Every structure is written in structure tokens, then in C-alpha cells.
Amino acid sequence: MPNLIVTVTQYCTPRLQWIFHAAIMVTLIACSTNTFAQQGTSRADWKAKKYPSIPDDVERTSVTIWSDGTRMAGDIYRPKKTPVGTKLPAIVFVHGTGGVKKMPWSVKLATGFAQHGYVFLNFDYRGWGESESKLLLLGEMPEPNKAGEVTVKARAIRWQMDFADQTTDIRNAIAFISGESDVDPARIGILGTSYGGGLVTWTAANDPRLKCAAVQVPGMGSHKQLPFYEKVYALMTKQARGDAEPIPFRTGAPGGKMSSYSHMRYNIAKDASFNAIKAASDVKIPMLIIDAGQEELMDITKNGGRVAEILQANGTTVKYHVIPDMGHYGVYSHRLKDALKMEIDWFDEHLAAAQNARDRK
User: Model pTM?
Assistant: First the structure.
């Protein structure tokens, strides 16, 4: 029977001086991560940024992924010198708030998986990073010509935290990687971080092409109680009647602990039907959940911990691992290698198992 594996890294109290310096280091890394996300937020800015270097045994290919009529920018990482005809397992990576494919830590994840024999797809959601934007018409649409074409004045819709559209982006990314000649479409996994953890949980519950999942420091949207829905539907009414911005532009910037992501925009009216906690009940594939014991952005018992409980109760294989001496951003810095090893081990076990089961038939 599928089982729950709960592990907590052993913690030995270091010297006070070490703690002080480590805390400063993590804070600086977190700040630099957020700054990297905000230094020029246009598509042209991101296209102009240089890629972090990659190891000699990994190759990177830039690709275009169509998602509901809009082009998304993606990078595929794979091991070099793979024998012709080899079919490799693949991982689709799902970013968190403001995350894009050129961030150094996500490139390290990609190269780490490629060095262990995976094809790894790192992509930008529509309107994020290098991807093209959806458009909001700023006037009445003119009558199309015989070819169905129109010329309009429009606003580019960028940096939206839009669960509904981003689940579509993720499923199209899965579709794209499934068509790669060196990918085994029966061995596709998905990995998500932070805000992307909820997106991965929903996708794992609803996309039968996936065989294994992992999330790190996941936000699951556990705030969705009655007061939240009252706010959602009030905004939806205003948007529908033209009494509020139809898509957030001047409004919707995150505040509080998330205020460092001032270029992002929430559109909670688009998220009314998205519920990762509820979707967890339908997850049937093995799932790894890595949480931070010093998580500063959310209550892990209501996010990753809650999903682990649901999966265990339903008999789904789940491993829940808490790193007690890590804050939210530590998974991108001093604990990146630790998380990467756990994730590769997890996918090795479960995607390889899928291949072995198929070979026995």
C-alpha cells in the first residue's frame, strides 16, 4: 500500500556567531533574488539578459511553446552525447512568484537534472519574462477584414498571478515536451516551487500524462474560506460591469510580506474556481513535498503539510520532508543542493519504476 514517509533533517545547534552570519547570508540572497526579478520587467529586458553559464556536459536549446494562441519562451536542458534513439524521462518546471527561466538558481536545477539523465523544460508563463503577453483591447474592436484580421490599440498583460491561465500554460508545456524526439512520453514528471507548488498540485490531479510530482516550499492557497470568496465575487461583479479594471494594471500589487514583488499583479477574480487543497484529493501519482521549518511567508501546516495529510489519507504515495533550519528562500541558495538531491532521487525512483513496469508487460 502506498505510504507516507515523513523525515526531518537532524538539527545540531551551531555557534551563535555562525547563526548570525548565516542569517545575514540568507537575507542577502533572498533580497538579491527578488531584485533580480525586478531589474527590468519588460520582455525586451529579459531577452537582453545573459544566461548563466552551464556545465560542458549539458546542452540548452531555446524553444517556442504555443499556449492558447500566445507564444511562451522555454529552454530545454538535456545531457550531451545521448545515444541516438534513447528515450529519456522529462521534467517540466513550474515557477513561483516572479520566477523566470533565466534565474541562476533555476538554471542550476535544470543542469542538475540534465546531468542525471533528464530532459528538463524551464519556461516563462504568458506575460512573464521573455514570453509574449496576452492583450487587453483599449477600445472597441473594429470589424475584422476578410482574413479575420483587425488592427487595435491594446495593453500588454504582464506579470499576472493567474492560476486559471497558468494551469493552461503548464499543460501546454507538458504537451510540448511530450513531442521531443528524445523524450519518453510515458515518463514525464513535474516540479514546482512556492506559488508554483499549488499549480503543480492542481495539475497532478488533473493531467493523466504526469507520472510523478514534487514541490518545494509550496503555497497551496489555503486562505480560500468564505470571506475570501465574498471578496472574489464582489470584484468579479465590478469587473463584469466595468466598475473596476477588467485586468489589474494600476491595482492588484501584492503587499505585506510579498511587497518586494511590486511588479506582480493579483487577479483574484480569475482564481475563484482554483483550489489546490481540494484538488489534492484527486492526486494519484507519487508526490514529494519539501517544506521549510523556518518558513516566513505561510503556515506550512495549512499548505504543504495539509496536502501531505490528504494524500496519505487517500493512500497516495507521498514523502513529506521538512528542513528545519531553512527559510522560504533557502531552497534557492544554501539548501538548493540538498533539495535537488532529494528531488532527483524521488524522480529516479518513480519515473524509473514506470519504465520497469512497462517493460514487464
Answer: 0.88
- Helix residue ranges per DSSP H, 68-195: 104-115, 163-178
Helix H or strand E encompassing 202: helix 196-206
Residue 154, by phi and psi: left (phi above 0), alpha (psi -120 to 50) or beta? Answer: beta
Contact 289, 196 (CB under 8 A): no
Residue 247 reports pLDDT greater than 80? yes
Q: What is the pLDDT of residues 297-310, one digit of tens each?
A: 999 999 999 999 99
CA distance 148 to 232: 35
What local confidence, expressed as pLDDT, does residue 273 receive? 85
Q: Which of 348, 345, 346, 343 is nearest to 106 (CA)?
A: 343
- How far CA 165 is from CA of 199, 273, 322, in Å, comes to 10, 12, 30
Decide if 187 contacts 355 (C-beta within 8 A): yes
163-173 per-position pLDDT tens digit: 999 999 999 99
Pairing verdict, β 160-161 and 134-137? unpaired
Pick the CATH number of 4-226+281-360 from 3.40.50.1820, 2.30.40.10, 3.40.50.1980, 3.50.50.60: 3.40.50.1820
pLDDT the model gives residue 354: 60
